[in-house]
Amino acid sequence: MTADEAMRLVHNGDSIFIQGSTSVPNVLEEALARRGHELEGVKVYSAFNITKGEAPFCKPEYKDAFLINSLFLCADQRRWVGEGYGSMIPAFLGEIPFLFRSHQIPLDITFINCSPPDENGYCSYGMSADLAFSAVECSRIIIAQINKSMPYLCGAALIHESKITAAVECDDPPVALHFGAPTEIESAIGQNIANEIEDGATLQIGVGGIPNAVLNGIKHHKHLGLHTEAMTDGVVRLIEEGVIDNSLKKIRPGKSVASLALGSEHMYEFLHYNSDVEFYDVAWTNDPQVIRQNPRVVAINSAIEVDLTGQVCADSIGTTIFSSVGGQHDFMYGGALSEGGKTFIALPSRTGKGRAKIVPTLTPGAGVVTTRFQTQFVATEHGIVYLRNLNLAERAKALISIAHPDDREALERAARDRFGYSFNRIY
């Protein structure tokens, strides 16, 4: 049927989950928005949406039609939530499927953007198994955008065509992301982390300049494994070059494991029907008890700011919500439990506008995503420090040593005021 015909399945008060990553079903979103003048109180849930613009239903005239609840805020809904029309539900990414399955977040309908069916009638969830897997399981109506341009990704994230309530055919290529070469600062941070990674490590690594710099720094390593949230071009390159061979992993040995993918056209072509790469429900990929079973897990995550005790803010700028916790906690915890595991928080010492990112205390209203009880390594372009065995005063000294040189004097004064003699005697 057409997308507009499929939207007749949506009624006032329904709860809808919309698939994310680069699998956002844009054709269905646009059709849903076109019904905005007819609907009221439709609850919309989504997470980590990578799109070409703002969500079409995030408009003032639809403020009572669609009640927006982001599970991981991205640019498509950031302005809408910032202006108070929508909101964010704080949750560890790996625990959101439980909220669906326990009906704490009850779902009526799920929108997915999937591949055409294979010879056995199974469609791939495309770039986003993460939350779509459990959302489909928990919804009575499945509206699928059957997309000729969506790669067929292997693993558990498949749906048989008989389970689809309404199918809308389209040809809408997933958003392609291209990242430039890492900056000088990003390269320095990446090398600081790469120096700590051993052969045989199992990687969880994110997206952007710093992760790419880390990957550049380990291109001569051997027998690395991959068990991560996001599959990216950087890790694909290491798979193609044989650096990542997954030979020493305990969980799905020989296979690269992820729950979502975002990157270039080359990466999408690489993943199409590639049985060496598998995509799974994020409740499994992000389970710390699963993560810990792999050897020498290396978890690399970013931060908006870090205070002198090692508290990490990664989801907000003061009171303004920017993203969410995502899987940072899941992998920081699981990585710490892994035999030989290491966890890293990576950040430049200053923002692009010159604001310090290592601070005496977090900005008022900022959220603590990784607590000071979990933080291990922190890396900037000025070095890397290990905090786990340090008291608060020692942590302050260590973090000051990797702060921007122009910020260190003020940080020292703040540390002396806060920690007194315990700081003075070691400085």
Q: Strand order across the biggest sheet?
A: 4-3-2-1-5-7-10
- In the CATH hierarchy, what is the architecture of the largest domain at level 2? 3-Layer(aba) Sandwich
Helicity range of the residues? 25-40%
**Rg measurement, Å:** 22 Å
User: Tell me about the biggest sheet?
Assistant: 7 strands, parallel
Strand content: 15-25%
Question: How many individual domains?
Answer: 2
| Assembly state (oligomeric) | single chain
Report mean pLDDT, rounded to a whole number: 95
Global morphology: globular
The helix count comes to 15
Distance between the termini: 71 Å
CATH structural class of the largest domain: Alpha Beta
Low-pLDDT segments, ≥5 res: none
Q: Give the CATH topology of the largest domain.
A: Glutaconate Coenzyme A-transferase
What structural class should be given to the helix and strand makeup? alpha/beta
Tally of strands:
25
Relevant CATH superfamily of the largest domain: Acetyl-CoA hydrolase/transferase C-terminal domain
